[in-house]
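Objective 1b. Sequence-to-structure analysis of Acyltransferase 3 domain-containing protein.
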Amino acid sequence: MNRRFATFLDMSLWISALMALVYHVRFLMFVDYDALQAHSGIDQVFYFLTGLGHESFAVFFVINGIFVGLFLRHMPAAQGERALLARWWRSHLALLPVLALGGLLDLAGVHFLNGSGLYSDFPAFSSVTLSWTTFYANLFMLQPALAPTFGSNGMLYLYAYLWWSCCLLVLLRRAWRSHAPRRVAAGAALLLGLAVWMPPAFWPWLTVWLLGVAVGLGGPWPRPLLHPLAAWALLAAAILFSRLAGARTDLLPAPWGELLLLWKYVIVGMGFAAVASVLYRSPMSAAAAPGAAPSFFARLNRHLADSASVAFLFHFPLMMLLTAIGADLFGHRLMQQPGPLCYALVGTIVMLCYAASHVLVRCIGTRAGGLRPTV
């Protein structure tokens, strides 16, 4: 994998995690766009960019799929799938302390910092489920199909989607190669079980993830599948369409409007996968030879990417606690009109959450979800 492609993946990974974090903090701190009293240029740009939260989820899923595809590509065929599941599960167990820490932060917020009603009366968080049953259900990836997400961490449903996508891919690949009835039956049973248990939102995210797997397994290409400008234009158009469509279901007659809302992030995933396929080139240029020392920018980019998976999947409890501290101890109301102080507080919370993610990664030693190949 050439260094330009690796740098692109690293940068896209931490930017997507940062966008998801900013999106959620803005959701708590600022009023909705329709409730703005003044639509200044800064406010409009800020709301447009921070409204790209779900689009950043799509980018994150494609990158994770690329890492999985690269991992399988560089492993022996007979060992790749089993090694992938083992490595993924070891990474998950290493993140167990982070899951427990999130529960402790929620307990502290519920019992000592709920004067604003953030943990009990806020519309999106009226029920923060903190129980051992929910904890173990989330440990074994049974959310959201059979159990709610643990505590305030609503992002854990995407974590389960990644795990079950990985399991499904492994079983279907092994069944395809061996044609053994037992493996075919196991893959069909898991597919049927997911069809029954998982909500409809699982399938678009599975599709987005598989786009990344296809890029990782199929590349590198000696020449681009698309012209680079066409790939970037496709990504820009997909993001713009997804953002402008928003949550509207009236763009198409029923039920197509609901289906468009459900599957529009696949279009974003296709755009990002197209750009990634263009950049996934071979051979490596002389300027990016393996022996060349990475620049300061490359090292910073790698450090930020190392923290991205933890920041993406486990920022919610800390974000909630910091917001509750501002509301209870400093009287900063939730969902205010934007202003200099609000912007400063959003930036502070985002930086603290990302810095905490970096510290946690250094402590537990699981970087980028444990799946990034060595480059």
